[in-house]
């Protein structure tokens, strides 16, 4: 049984602190602080940070719920049925610029989900085209930018963010992404008139 002094001991707290642009309030041990992700104009969600029971020290923040707003914009573009190659081009550009600043776990899970949906959109759009050359041009443009997105997501800069994801989530999303990248290469092969075209990427497709 705890000593009488322990029962009436003052509560322990983690000190308020600022880390990577996020201000965490003074928080009681054994509880979590929930704070808006940094830069709410461009990023949605909350950071969760736990104050350890035993040590009353902060644990590593969980930013996997932080997602840049462009992910939702791409989702809307897919639902509208915008040209798939335009969506994949914008995704690759957004991922590249986000990687140069700060990628979050929600950006990875959101991008992988978008990848499977934009791939299905591409198949339905390109399959409906009668002009074989037009189909090849659009499929090539789509696959080039789709592959660039995969390259950004699998680049060394993204690895620490993947490691923030829970192991089952990480494994599931990594295998989904690799499957989507392989499917995009098959899509291009299906619609290619000239069979000699090959695309090269740094981090996948070896």
Automatic annotation (TrEMBL):
<dbReference type="InterPro" id="IPR001879">
    <property type="entry name" value="GPCR_2_extracellular_dom"/>
</dbReference>
<dbReference type="InterPro" id="IPR036445">
    <property type="entry name" value="GPCR_2_extracell_dom_sf"/>
</dbReference>
<dbReference type="GO" id="GO:0004930">
    <property type="term" value="F:G protein-coupled receptor activity"/>
</dbReference>
<protein>
    <submittedName>
        <fullName>CRE-LAT-2 protein</fullName>
    </submittedName>
</protein>
<dbReference type="GO" id="GO:0016020">
    <property type="term" value="C:membrane"/>
</dbReference>
<feature type="domain" description="G-protein coupled receptors family 2 profile 1">
    <location>
        <begin position="13"/>
        <end position="70"/>
    </location>
</feature>
<dbReference type="InterPro" id="IPR032471">
    <property type="entry name" value="AGRL2-4_GAIN_subdom_A"/>
</dbReference>
<dbReference type="Pfam" id="PF16489">
    <property type="entry name" value="GAIN"/>
</dbReference>
